[in-house]
Amino acid sequence: MSLYQALSNFFQLLQLVIIVRILLTWFPNINWFNQPFKFLRDVTDPMLEPFRKMIPPIGGLDLSPIVLFMVLNMIEGIVLKFVSM
């Protein structure tokens, strides 16, 4: 497996973990301190928190994951372009 493919897979996995985290927030009975939910929280919160501080919820809707996806896509494009050189 090439470095390009490994990095591409890493970014896809990261986005999948974020999507799972977003979907699980719709279930209020989840205890985020038990595994595997704690793992999801520990992985995603450090990425989401800076955007949550910049963008307040609008009507109770957290828009920080959308901004995170845009930033991750830009970083992925830059990294993969650099690796493919």
Query: How many separate domains make up the residues?
Result: 1
Count of alpha/pi helices:
3
Ranges where pLDDT stays below 50 over 5 or more residues in a row are none
Largest sheet: none
H/E element order:
HHH
Radius of gyration computed on alpha carbons: 15 Å
Strand content bin: under 5%
Let me know the number of strands: 0
Q: Termini separation (Å)?
A: 17 Å
Average pLDDT, rounded to a whole number, is 93
Global outline: globular
Which structural class do the helices and strands define?
Answer: mainly alpha
**Helical content (DSSP H or I, runs of 4+):** over 70%
Strand-helix topology:
Blueprint: H1 3-24, H2 37-54, H3 64-83
Helix pairs in contact: 1-2, 1-3, 2-3
Task: Write up this protein.
With 85 residues, the protein is mostly helical. The protein has one domain (3-83). Helices cover 71% and strands 0% of the residues. It is built from three helices and no strands. Helix 1 crosses helix 2, helix 1 packs antiparallel against helix 3 and helix 2 (37-54) packs across helix 3. The radius of gyration is 15 Å and the shape is globular.
